[in-house]
Every structure is written in C-alpha cells, then in structure tokens.
C-alpha cells in the first residue's frame, strides 16, 4: 500500500516533470513485485500450515490486516489505468475492469466478514482501552475499491458498462464511509477516556486519514465521472450528473477538513510518544497520509486552487521521504531477521495445549 501510493503520487504531483513520470513507473513495477511476493508467501504459509489460518482469523488484531490485500491490489489497478491503458489500448482497459471486479469482490468480502467477526469476538478486545484505529483497515477496503472503480469507469469505452461500474462504486462507498465514521466516533471516545495508544502502536493514529482522504477522493472522482456519464446514458435527470459532481466535491471538502483534525491529533500523539520503537506498523505513516495528499491534489484540480496544489505537493514530498525512511529501516530489520513476527501464533500454542488436555490418559 505504501509503495503503491508513492507511485501514484509521483504520477499525480501538481508540479511534475518527465523524470517523475519515470519514477512512478519504477515504483509501479516495484509495487507489483512486492505485492506478488507477499501474496505468494502468504498463500504458501496458509496452504502448508492451514492451522495458522483459523488462529489468525480469530485474532481480533491480526485478522484486521486482511483489509490491506485488496487495498494494496487497488494501487496496482490504479497505476495500470494511468500508465498501461493509454499505451496498450482496449485490451488493457478490459483487463483493468476485470482486475477491479476481483478487487471489489475481495474488498466487500473483507469488509462484511471482518465486521461480523469483530462482533463475534468482541469479548477478546475486553475493553475500549484496547480499541485501535486498525479497526478501520477492513472498512477502508471498500472505500478504496470505490475510488479505483471511478478511475476504471472513466476509461471504459462502453457508457453502459461505465454506468454499472459507477453505481457499484457508489454502493461500495456507502458500505465503507458511514461505517468508518462510526468507528472514528468509538476511537475518539477511546482517546478521550484512555489517552494515547501504547508506543508500539502509536503510528495507528494516522490511520483515520485513510478513509477520510480516500473517501473524499472517491466521492469527488465519482462525481466527476458521473457528470460525463449520466447525460450520455440518460440516467435519472439531465442535471443529475452535475448535481452528483457538486455534492461530491463539497463532501470531499468536508471530509478533508475533518481529516485535518485527525492529522493534528496524530502529530500531537507522535510528538508526545517519542521516542517509539520501529516496527512494521511504521508503514501506517505512508498510505493514510498518501491518500490524504491525493485528495488534496484532486481538490486543487477541481476548484482549481493553487493553495491546495501547493499543499498536495508538500504532503506528497513528505510521504515520499517517509517511504524512504521506513523502507530503509524495514530492509535493515529484515536483513537482521528481527523485524518479522506473528503474535497470533501464541494462540496456536494455546490451542494445541488445550487439545492435549482433552485427550484421555
């Protein structure tokens, strides 16, 4: 997700250059390699050791990260639309549409299933104090799929296919955004009553920027595509597309303002918690801030506004620098072998011990 959003920002930065375009292609290729490697490793892990899957899916924390799979895949689809479709033409467009359908099914499955599993296993969280912003990860999957679908719909040659994609995206946005707002209320209550999360997970304070940033970007881009598509397909009223465009823009602007509040809370939390140890959670810096930067850039394009373009450029540069820092420390931790661990495997041992106790002597 972090590498994918960096490739998108290199492509979209307001004050751009040809060399940044080439960098976006390099990061796109790197993202494909990283996603493929992670997916294959995960597939082999759960195929060779199927008992780990049941333990992981029951874990109230580790299971949430399944939402990162469709979100990471969505960044690949976006760059495919931006880079490959203009060069390779119709077959690349169809391929992007199929990939988006797969991503949508997975995203919806993750959002629906993990939301129910959270209720079923809520006793394992025990108290509001253990509630973290990571609860947003499976919910944000459908929001990201909605924004990606809007970009795919824009390049589809058949207006009816584009209309179906747009309508599906509005449903996906509706599945994720209101639920994300409900989780943000709970998370704010957790912060008000129990103060900051532990230093080990303090980076999760940036996660609210994800659904707010990409939620705003998605509804704004959907309105932009609907404005062109609805009149062409005689959908609803002749003014429907323009209405959706205007409403989408102002919703995005409101969500961007709400995101500023959480951005300030995250900065204060990070400042108060310093120093805090490096772990894989540091990747939580990149994607949420990256999609917030993308929303800022898109607002600057639609208004148009030089102020938002400058802010988008600043946020983009900050994300790229953060990626360099986190990637370097990840590589060092991976080389030493001290970075990767799976806390949920402790439950596997407990399950094994419980099974042994039930065996009669």
TrEMBL record:
What top-level branch of life does the organism fall under? Eukaryota
User: Which segments cross the bilayer?
Assistant: 20-44, 64-89, 95-119, 131-150, 170-189, 201-223, 243-268, 280-301, 307-328
Keyword Chaperone, does the record have it? no
Which Pfam families does the record cross-reference, listed alphabetically? SLAC1
The cellular location(s) given in this protein's UniProt record come to:
Cell membrane
- Name the UniProt key words of this record, in alphabetical order: Cell membrane, Membrane, Transmembrane, Transmembrane helix, Transport
Topology in the lipid bilayer = Multi-pass membrane protein
Family note = Belongs to the tellurite-resistance/dicarboxylate transporter (TDT) family.
Record's protein name: Voltage-dependent anion channel
